[in-house]
Design goal:
heterodimer; A: mainly beta; 7-stranded mixed β-sheet; 4-stranded antiparallel β-sheet; 0% helix; B: mainly beta; 5-stranded antiparallel β-sheet; 11 strands
Chain lengths: 113, 114
């Protein structure tokens, strides 16, 4: 029973490029949450999705960031025109429903040069 | 402002001793979850405790929840060097529009010396 999968594990992008981060939830889970962790800090909520729906994007920056969870395939967090301040670890978590345990993937560490 | 705040920020103990970490939060919650994170790695889920529960155990872990004080504690008994990690509490806030998103504290860094 595979856990939450994220890829790539490490991503290096130059300023102005696009970053695409992928997350496959645990089998049987249809709720996906994305969090960002800056160095030496705790995690900050970004967005919550169910299949084909964004439920809560209150933690997403208003510009350059978008997320989707299509009917087929992984959830994608997309960052356009990356800047150095986007360098962080991005974690995805999946759950069987609201109020249940959230299980985290290994994260994608984004470095913007 | 942070919903969850852990105390202490850092803790260093000898192998075999017990480690206690505390978490305080501000708003009413549905549940509180504790996670462990080894340096540069992902988060490992430890325990979820619901607002109507006062104590839960899992192996060497004991979690308590006091909703009147808006606080929780994580006790690790008979610590091992492998317990060295950062520990985070995360709250699922109660309220209309709540979607299960977790609000994390800054974490407690635990070092267990062999």
């Amino acid at each position: 029973n595979a856990g939450v999968m994220q890829n790539p594990r490490h991503l290096v992008r130059r300023r102005g490029q696009e970053a695409r981060l992928r997350c496959s939830p645990m089998k049987g889970h249809s709720h996906v949450y994305w969090y960002r962790q800056l160095p030496e800090e705790g995690l900050k909520f970004m967005v919550y999705l169910q299949k084909e729906n964004i439920i809560d994007e209150s933690g997403m920056p208003k510009e350059r960031f978008s997320a989707e969870f299509p009917k087929e395939g992984p959830s994608i967090l997309r960052i356009q025109q990356v800047v150095r301040g986007d360098s962080a670890a991005y974690f995805c978590a999946s759950s069987q429903g609201e109020g249940y345990e959230q299980y985290f993937g290994p994260g994608t560490r984004l470095t913007v040069t | 402002s942070q919903q969850g705040e852990e105390d202490p920020q850092a803790l260093s103990i000898q192998e075999g001793e017990n480690a206690t970490m505390n978490c305080s939060y501000k708003t009413s919650i549905n549940n509180l979850q504790w996670y462990r994170q080894n340096s540069g790695r992902g988060l490992v889920h430890l325990i979820l405790i619901r607002s109507n529960e006062r104590e839960k155990h899992s192996g060497r872990l004991r979690v308590t929840l006091d909703t009147s004080k808006k606080s929780s504690s994580l006790l690790i008994t008979a610590s091992r060097a492998a317990d060295t990690a950062s520990y985070f509490c995360a709250t699922d806030a109660e309220g209309s529009g709540n979607t299960g998103k977790l609000i994390f504290g800054q974490g407690t860094t635990l070092q267990v010396k062999p």
